[in-house]
Model the fold of this input.
Amino acid sequence: MYDFDIIVIGAGPGGYPAAIRAAQLGKKTAIIEKEAFGGTCLNWGCIPTKTLIASAERYHHAAHSEAFGVTAKSVSFNYAKMAARKAEIVSKLSGGVQMLLKSNGVEIIKGAARFEGPNRLSIVQPDGTKRWLSATSIIIAAGSDSAMPGFLPKDKRVIDSRAFLDLTELPKNLLILGGGVIGCEFACMAAALGTKVTVVEMLEDIVVVLDRDVRRVLRKRMESLGITLLTGAPLTDIAVKKDTVTGTYKDQTVEGDILLVAVGRKPNTAALDLARAGVKVDERGTIPVNAQGRTNIASIFAVGDLVTGSIQLAHAATQQGVAAAEAAAGLKSKVEKVCPSCIFTSPEIGLAGLTETKAQQLGISVKTAVFPFSVLGKAMAAGETDGFVKWVADPVTGQVLGAQAVGCHATDLISEAAIAIRNELTIDEVGNTIHCHPTLSEAWMEAAHAFHNTCIHLPKR
Amino acid sequence: MAQAVIFPKLGQTMEEGAIVKWLKKEGDPVAKGDILFEIETDKANLEVESFFEGVLLKIYVREGITVPVNTVVGYVGAAGEKVPNQAPKAEAPAPAPAPAAAAVPATSPAISAAPARVPAAVPAPVAAVPAPRPAPQPVAALAPEARLIISPRAKALAKDACINPSRVTGTGPNGRIVEKDVQTYLASSGYNALHITPAAKRLAAEKEIDILTVRGSGDAGRIMVEDVERAVRRRPVPLSRMRQIIARRLVESKQTIPHFYVTVKADITDLMTYRADLKAKGFNYSVNDFVLEAVILSLEEFPIVNSVTDGLTVSWRGDVDLGMAVSVENGLVVPVIRAAQTLTLKELNAQTKALAEKARTGKLTPDEMVGSSFTVSNMGMMSVDQFMAIINPGEAGILAVSTGRQVPAVVNGEIKVRTVMAMTLSVDHRIVDGSVGAQFANAIKSKLENLELWKALV
Done:
């Protein structure tokens, strides 16, 4: 007999829901965490960044509200206090995760796990002692770390997003390598607090998963925040000087007090000794799994960032973790196909389902419809007229296949679109659903009308 | 004058074919040697070149329509030249040639232009072909439904509900289906309990899928787009022409040839060692080469297995025209090694390789795939212990070769690890009896186990 029915490695947003679900299903469950409960999301990702962004927005609004009739004199901020507030929220949530695990009867084990066989793990505990555990099924949810390519100088001025969050003072000049989601989120946050930011992205544009029209709004707003966006060429000759980090973009020299590296994430698979269990790992170090999260070894599952083809979002990992726990418990779990994404830039961006760009790549014919915030009463009232919502639909059946929102509260707005896509509504159900006035979500309804060119609130085309 | 483009006859046995793709449109300029169209025959896809220069004036035979060989499929001529609106009748076959001329060389000049490129509009040599057979019907579409007597309102309701009205029992005069009947049907068939997403409903209407035949996979059995797409995929699609031919010939074989089967297991341990030695010396023979040679030699010893019967007569085939089954994408072809008994092992190896390569690249000509007298089907690469093959009509037998495996075997009273390969002979019991089949199979086996033989042959 094994020590446990199910052991979960890693207590991030993939792992802890898996453990809780396994325990709910009556399985004797343990979870192993080497560092911090809540994983990257809670400790060095979603939560701390959103806490800092909230602080940055407060400051930005306080300092820029004269158009609203609000004048605040000598608005200032204390970044150390912002960081302290962030630490407090993180600590509270992390404690909450441990409480949830305990209340469900999950045994918490601290330490670093490695495989000794398909059902067997050894754990090095914080005090250095070693412990052996076995389980009928093992769910790997060990997550990922920022990738730090080998060509970068090793120096305290060259840091990843996690180290950036530990800063108690913001740099005056920030150089960011990588114009993806993480690079752009940090760029917006720092720029809102007055840091001079330069982003260098090798690809032809920032956040290329988005459609071009969506990117254009983001780019314009970031530039108006004073961010310099350098795209289409790599950053070369990166060197650490006395007080700065410099590099070359095309034939121009760029510099910052700090270089934030945001070029993607690498899976935490190497330390797990997966070969000892016979688990297949592909050349990028990620683990291929089937729809239920099962690896090539029947007793072992993998969820989250370290899975091949994963979209590396906390909520995706959570859904996969629950599905894997159910599959490990012998249920026929279903994995959801529609997973919305959120980007906390300024302005925010939400994305669900198919983009127009992706449809073109796949040769799927689609029809799109947009509605701009600039003519929306609520957006005007809130002074947030940048952005729009966009439907991507099947031209024949009108099925909504994808949606993007860019602008104020876009990350909240996208959930309505996700429900419509997931439940296979057509543009007509969306357009016929009464939406509250005045709200930003009206834009979805109006865009659905735009699909048929029957918008009430846009001039006739 | 405009020249007729004729559907070529590309092999002695070829009677019909279909154009799979026109590479020129009406009005396109055509140079001599340009590829006009691709055709699909019983055996292969081939490109057909223009023999003339000018403009493609007319296309009579669209893609996918099966026509007899020598049919006029279009015209090439000067721009603006007048051509008939309707295709002229299929060109009469060339006057029956004198018997001496009937012996057409295996590779007629018309198709020697490898890779599989043939000039069109040259009436290929015709070997006393009877009047062209009418083209067979394309694969029957779903049998047209008996004409429904249904009121317009009932029809509209059925359409709106995405159900097949022919399942509704009519209560009107002469069994006419009226709106009430459809309503009753919807109520009794469980229709009203169905859940379907809006997009799935629209797709079902678009694709004319009866949603009562769709199983829902969504929350609480809701019918999703994916479920309707599965229903669309359940509709019959015509088999490729190659598969239709395979189907026809295999059914013919199983229905007319009483098969029986004999399995023997050859110990190829020593042969494998010898093969490795040869390889080290630069002679690259495959196990298949040895099997084919053993079969050829055995067929010479047992002429009855190299014969064919129609149930009334039996004819010895004379030459060993050895067919080798080669699996290709979505099908199987059997190129033929002609007069294989005249080839040295080295020649056999070279021909086998060349034919297999042509088969894989789709460059076999029809004539390279007809007239085999015995076939070998080797699944040694597929990791199988044993299988039984179906005889090619026109032959008396086929040998199914399986994977050589290391097994414990008794050698001189001791258990040793040996490489053993199962071979199953299928033969036509009308002319080959059990004892002959057994002797023939054992003849192959003993040759494979006789190392002295191979030393003499290599």
